[in-house]
Design goal:
This protein is 13% helix and 22% strand. It has 309 residues and is of the alpha+beta class. The protein folds into 2 domains: 164 residues, no CATH class; 128 residues, Mannose-Binding Protein A, subunit A (Mannose-Binding Protein A, Chain A), CATH 3.10.100. The protein is globular. The protein starts with 15 loop residues before the first strand and ends with a strand.
Length: 309
């Protein structure tokens, strides 16, 4: 079983904010919450079964206790701890492992923080800090990816550092399979990613320079006005849509080897505000595929328009 990227490309963000972090009406803003993407999230997403929780969105089963080790562990010790869990069939199950980067990211909410988990989640002992994933950094093998459950940041850390551990298991205990191959369709209107149904502007750096967040939002609106009579539904992508381009087995940029994009910049604005600090917005760094934040008022990141086919 693999996580279909089309299942979770919308965020749960419902509010819009200006560059100062002040909440504003969403209509006409061009921000994430204006478009209210179809999340395809079941109404009763999480099913509690005593000590474990089944996520019906992904089919993954998580420990209900999000901190079974009680203390931060280095990456190897985290694997050793989970091996011990499997040895005693903790919670009546085997096949426990560290979640992949993609798997842990499916739990992240972009509407709440501390912890950045969906509202009314059933988990216990969630630490609003760093959690290991089982995904190594391809460019730097002595590092692995972690996710900050306080706000949702995805970054890499040295494996000798200590972070929290949240075990997961798949149906039947199998490991996550290799993702389906990327398949592209290129024409004058853009580049379609058939895996997600998203069409991306090309070249990938149409503005040819970093801009502020508001300039990015306004620039995509201006692009629609210039293409009157053709597609006029280009928008700034939300952070999950940007992250869907990441190939964790590549770097410089962290995109699939067969990608057809030209002019890939170092970092891109998303339309998603960081509710952890609303004067910041989520960004994608293309070197390794990190997901971080940028100060909205600074011209630090580039623009990559998207639309749904």
């Amino acid at each position: 079983m693999w996580l279909n990227r089309q299942l979770n490309l919308g965020t749960d963000q419902t509010s819009c904010y200006d560059e100062c972090g002040i909440q504003i009406p969403c209509d006409g803003s061009g921000q994430d919450a204006e478009f209210k993407m179809d999340h395809r999230i079941p109404p009763e997403r999480f099913q509690v079964m005593t000590d474990v929780v089944l996520d019906s969105l992904t089919g993954l089963t998580w420990c209900r206790n999000a901190n079974p080790a009680e203390f931060p562990l280095d990456w190897q010790a985290a694997h050793d701890f989970i091996n011990e869990m499997n040895g005693v069939r903790a919670f009546g199950r085997s096949g426990w492992r560290l979640p992949s980067r993609s798997e842990l990211f499916t739990l992240i909410s972009h509407e709440v923080f501390n912890p950045a988990l969906p509202k009314d989640h059933p988990f216990e002992n969630v630490f609003p800090g760093y959690y290991w994933t089982g995904t190594p950094c391809y460019r730097l093998p002595d590092q692995a990816w972690y996710i900050h459950l306080g706000g949702g940041r995805i970054y890499r850390g040295m494996k000798h550092r200590s972070y929290m551990v949240w075990p997961v298991t798949s149906p039947g205990g199998e490991l996550p399979s290799v993702e389906e191959p990327w398949c592209w369709e290129v024409d004058r209107q853009g580049i379609l990613d058939r895996r997600t149904g998203l069409t991306w502007v090309h070249p990938a750096d149409a503005f040819r320079r970093p801009v502020t967040w508001q300039e990015a939002l306004d620039g995509v609106k201006a692009m629609n006005r210039k293409t009157a009579g053709r597609h006029t539904d280009w928008r700034l992508p939300n952070i999950r849509e940007l992250e869907s381009l990441v190939d964790i087995y590549s770097h410089s940029p962290a995109m699939p080897p067969n990608h057809p994009f030209v002019g890939i910049a170092d970092g891109y604005w998303s339309s998603t505000t960081s509710v952890y600090e609303p004067s910041y917005a989520w960004v994608l760094y293309t070197l390794d595929g990190a997901v971080g934040v940028g100060y909205k008022a600074k011209a630090d990141f580039n623009v990559w328009g998207v639309r749904r086919r």
